[in-house]
Structures are given as C-alpha cells and as structure tokens.
Amino acid sequence: MVERKKEMGRDRVSRLVTWGHWFAFFNGFLAMIVGFRYLDTVGHPETWVGWGYLAISTIGHFSFLAFIVYLVLVFPVTLLLPYSKILRGYAASIATLSLCILLYDTIIYNDYGLHLSPFVFDLAWADLNALLRGTSYIITPLGILAIELIAANFLWKRIEKIHKVRRGNKVVAFVGVCFISSHLIHIWADAADITEITRLDDAYPLSYPATARSFMESHGIDSSTRPKVSSSLRSSLNYPKRPLQCTKTDEVQPNILLLTIDSFRADMVTSKTMPFFSQYGHNHQQFLHHISGGNQFNSGMFSILYGLQGSYINSSGLSQTPPLLTQILKQHGYQLGLFSGLHASQMPQAIYDDFEQIISPPNSSDAAQDIENVAGFQSWQQAQKSPWFGLINLSAPDSYDTPIGFLGIETVQSEQKLTPAQRVLFNQYRQSLNFIDQQIESIVTDLPTDTLVIITGISGKLFTSSLHEARGNLSPANVQVPLVIHWPLSPAKDVNYRTSHYGIAPTLMTQVLGCTNPATDYSAGRSLLQPDAESWVYVGDNRIFGIYQKSEITVIDRHGKYRIYDENYQHRLRKKLSVPELIEVMREGRRMYNN
Fold first, then answer.
1. What InterPro entries does the database record attribute to this sequence (predicted)?
2. What is the 3-state secondary structure (H, E, C) of 53-95?
C-alpha cells in the first residue's frame, strides 16, 4: 500500500513536470510574440540571411528564457507542492509577471535603448508617467493572466494525449538546434562582419551571442577595429523635426573650410609643440572648453556634421540621409569637397554623400597621406568658381606618425605622471602635432582672407596602444579638443564657457545659411556664439557614453552599469546618479523619433 502511494506520487509529479515543460514551451511562444515588439526599435532585416538568423535566434532565445524561468521558479514548487490546482495558478501568475516584465522592457528599450537593470528600473520609475500612457498597463496584465489560466487548464486536461503523441523530444531537439545554431551563425557573422546579423546583438534582453573575437585575437587579428553596430535602430526618425526655413541672402556667402584633426588633445596645444596654431588661436575666436561628441572617429565626426548625439549614429533613418548641413550648403550653391583617407567603417554611410570625395589612396604612412590631402585641397579650392565648403581630415596624430626625414622638436618632460611607455608616446605625439602645425600653416596662409575657417579635433587621444582601453575611456584627455574659428572681420576672442561639437552645425546654419528654425528642430546643440542652457553634454555612442556635467563625469555602458568620476576623471565618486538629468539625456536620445 505504501509502495502504491509512492508510485502514485511519482506519477503525479511526473505528470506535473511534463505539464510544466509544455507550459514553458507555450510561454516561450508568447514571449516570441512579445519579442517582435523589439523590431519596432531595431528595424526589420532587409535580407533573407537576416530574417533567417532572426527567426532561429528568436525561437532559441525566448524558449531558453521561458525554460529558465520554469526551472528556477516553477520546478522546485512542483516537487514541494505537487498539487495541480495550486501549481497551475502559481505558474500562471509567474508567467504573467514574466511576460509583463518583458513587455515593460520593450517599452524601456524603445525609449532609452537599454534593457531593464536595477539602474534602468530606477530611471524608468522616475519617468513612469511618460512611459506608460492610458489604461493598457492595467488591462494588459489581466488579459495575459486570463490567457495563462486558460492555457494552463487546457494543457493539464490534455496532458495524457499530448504525452502519448511523443512530440516532446522532437520539440526539445528543434529548440536546442535553433539555440546552438544561432550562436554558431553569430560567430561566423562576427568574424565575417555581417552587420545584418551583428546589429541585432543587443536587441533581446539577456542576450549574449557567442563571438569570434577571442579566436581572432589569438590569431593576431584585431577585431576591435571592426565596426560594431548597435541594435538601437529605428525607422521612424524625424530629421529635422520640422521643415527647415533657410533663405539665401543677397550677401556674398563666404567660402568655408572645416579642418578636422583626428586624435587632437586640447591640453597639448602649446607654443613649443604647435607654435603657429597656438598663435592662430590667440588671433581669432578660441573656444577653451570644447568637448567632442565622442572619443572615436565615427562618433566625433557624426557630432560635427549631424549635430546629433551618438545614440542616433546607427539609426536606420539616417543610413541614407546626409547631414542637413551639407544638404543646405548644396541648395545654396556651394561646392563641397572632402579630402581624407579612407574610413571604411564610417557610420552613417550617407554622411559624405553630398561631397565630391577626393580620397587619398592607402599609404603606409598617415603623415604622407595627410600631405597628399593638403595638396589635393589646395589644387581643388584654387579651381573653384563658386562658394565652396572644404572638409579636410588629417589623421597623423592618431598613429603618432611623422613623415620620413621630419626633424621635429626637442623632447620635454611631461607635467603628468606617465609610465615609461606613455612617456615615449607622449613625445612622439608631440612630434606628430608639430608636423600637423606645419600643415595647418600651409593651408590657412594660402586661403583668401574672407574664408571662414574652423579648426578642431575629432576626438582626443589617450596615450595607450590598447584600442579597447581607448574606446572605453571617456576622460577629458580623450574628448576635450581644440576649437578655433576665424570669422572674417571679427575680433579675436577667448570663449570661456563650455561648448561642444553639437554646436558647429547650428552655428553655420544660422549664421551663414540663414536658417531660422530653432536648433532643436535638427540638432542636439545650440549656437557656439552663446552659452548653452543645458547643464550636461553627451559624449559617446550606443555602447558606452558619458555625461559631462560641471563637477562630475558619469560613464554608462549598454548594460546600464555606471561609474561616476570627478571632473578630472581621477577619482570614482560614491554617489547615486542624478536621475532627472539622466532622463533629460534619454529624452534627447529619443526626441527625433516618432512617438
């Protein structure tokens, strides 16, 4: 009799476990349906390869999540309380809560580009009224609970029939194959740089697809230099928010030169290192507290030309849209010329579409390539008969390069505390800047005096050979850059308030191109000619970004982990993040999208 009771108990538990597996699979299917909401944010795949990967990764990922929830929260209760009525009600409640959390995550991700974490939850809780609209947040959970209870009872009543069909092993095998295949395909896509697949990396919560990075690095291939495309992509972008009103004036419009220098630190501009540029800054408008929009070439150049913060850099709405600045310049009859080396990973791809691109051929020396770019610009601008806008990019400082036979300047002791390797890089960097100083002199001395000249850095420079360290560092050394503007017939002036790259496009559009729209219609910045009312500046892209405030720097990664430093990036501060200001940052990152 005792054995019979034990056998009946084991049968009951076995039946409940079988039911639980099928109930978990059903909820995995519901999670897949909810998960398609993420596509409204990341955009739909454009090829069959993308759709195929999306299908198997969705099946594998959400089925795996559903099984983990069952294994952790439902299976132990099955063993402790093997009573079907209790278990069905409990499991339905857990499933409802899990799906509601997933739904909430889709809302958070759509607005912030981040998945739920303790940090993001605190942020979203403070911004709850803006996130949840109407009464759907009450009706939806009730509707999900009703579906879960119906499904739980339906499966329980038919569990014997389902068990006899013996489809369970095939379903498990199919889901397992999808899960493993999605990771194998991602390894291939990561190695081959198939962005149609890798752009979905962060789309789903708790998704950590396998990569080929460790394999590539062990074989001497630097995968960190390859473009990493974030999944925070949307198609419903309003850029600009309202049609631009830009009237062409009767005045003769000035030629414009935008000279950008890659890896150009503001604190390295001295009379010993760059004698000409140092004096040039004193003779014109010099912005002493200027911040780039990023610490990498892509995010820095994006912030200059588009005037938008880096959270938009991979937006599908910009993939075929050139900057409004260059669009309006063309409409006003300007000839646009780009003089640069090849940057294959530039995002968005349409950023230079309005330019006549004079790309110097690949060269083993960045300095030699810079010399070719300068010569190409000088020949081009002399041949122009109408107003022109020239963009020259010099990149020698990024690789500490100088041309063969360059004499340079004497080495000096750094005022900063540096390691022996950093001291070598410090002085080699000075040599490179001295070379750039000579190139700047040769460019600007040959220009007509009525040319509007803007000279700035794309990003700063960290004295390290580790690309990973440089990418994750958002210190002033890596983002604070010089900015000098020569306005024809304007007096010299030192600007002591903080400015950023986001203000360059609005300044040109309002002061030169006659655009009367408020800068908020098309930019995250304001005119450089007056202090910005915002108390913060966004620096970075989707994967890691910093918020520069008056006395602190907050660095946040794509998982919502954050660190707060003092204004010199020297000490980590033990304090909570300022939620109101972070909400402002996040709102700026979604302001250009349809809501």
1. Alkaline_phosphatase_core_sf, OpgB/LTA_synthase_biosynth, Sulfatase_N, YejM-like, YejM_N
2. HHHHHHHHHHHHHHHHHHHHHHHHHHHHCCCHHHHHHHHHHHH
